[in-house]
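Hi U.,

Before I forget, here's the chain from the pilot set. I'm dumping it here mostly so it's searchable later in email.
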Amino acid sequence: MTQAVGRGDAIAAGGLLVVTLLFGGGSRLFPTYRLVVELAAVLALAWFAWRSWQRPQGWPTWVAVALLTSTILMLLVQLIPLPSPVWQALPGREDAAAVYAAADASDRAAPLSLNPAGTRSSIAFFIVPFAMFVVALRSGADVRRLLLQLIAGFAILNGLLVVLQFQGFPWLTFYYTTSTRPGSGLFANKNHSAVFLVAAMPALAWTIKERWHSAPLATRRWIAAAATGFISLTVFGCLSRAGLALLPIGLLASGMILTSGRPTRRGMALTFGGLAAAAVLLVIVLPQTAVVGRALERFDAGSDLRYQFWPVVVDTTKAYLPFGSGFGTFPEVFAAREPLSIVRPTYVNHAHSDYMEIALEGGVPAIVILAGFLIWFCAVAALRLRACRWGSVGFAPVVIAVAGVLELILHSLLDYPLRTLALAGLAAMYCAVLAAPPSALDLEPPRRYRQKVRRTAR
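Structure:
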């Protein structure tokens, strides 16, 4: 029975991650893909609900569950109908009140959210990262390591798609629109594709080095270093400034994994020498190529439109404080206050800063929850890194998770990666790795190194 349950956990967790990464890289223009991911999340949650509830262990898990619960409650509260005098007294509701008055419906009850349908859509979206966190947390350390291997496989798949798309195979684009550019890979947005590659890069290095036992360790290190270099090149192919800026974090985390595990001095020298050679290649040789040159030219681009509409977002946020306009309302709320000087044929679908958009839509409650998450991440990351010794079994998964979440947090400053189901699910899975209490095995070196130490002692 225990073996069957463990197999069921692996199928539920692995299936949800595969579906999320395969169909969750799109946007609102692809509702069918999104529906498939949300249904998979509901099924995965149903499996673990059938298995009965498990009490969280340790304060990192308790705090994470409290943050998730608070987020769900905040979203639900935004849908509760309020009496007409109450919601009309809320800041920023003047235009909506005028519309109701013109329609002779001044006494109509309305929720806090100015777009209830958008808020309900946000709740459905949030089911996916919520399910991914619960599934990964409940599945156990072995299944979480399996999930990291799946992420490594998708990193290779995404990188190959980026290369093929640049070679003139547009039909390999999963989410083709008029704005789709080569380098998007499994995603509709090339920036999201790049940040996924960077966040998955350490998982690929770890999978080759630690989980592929048929080759000698030195050989596995070299192959892992070569795979890391390939992913680095595909990040350039995404033509994403954010991906290039975050690439050093992915390379540093991969280097920590490749050099962990008590290697010999010769192995350490070879590994660091390979990383130094890769750095020289990236800095000196690659900028001379056409693709890399195009990527670097984007750093010299003129004024970015987001710098023009960010002041409008800030002013709009102030107008709706302290409760916000409601999640899923940004496009309509921004369009109502957008000055004619920055109006374009296209519309602004997001604030291009998750933090700004969260503050506008959720107000003070959302800001408090966001601050709580950032504090939780910093505290738990420091705790786990300190607890897992260099070269222990649990060291690499913690490094992968810390680097991945950090990259997504930084990318959220200038973009909206967590508005994509695939990256939101990835972040939730990494958070589950950090929230899960380490076992005694996670704090010990791998078995082959313990055997080597015993032989040396004799």
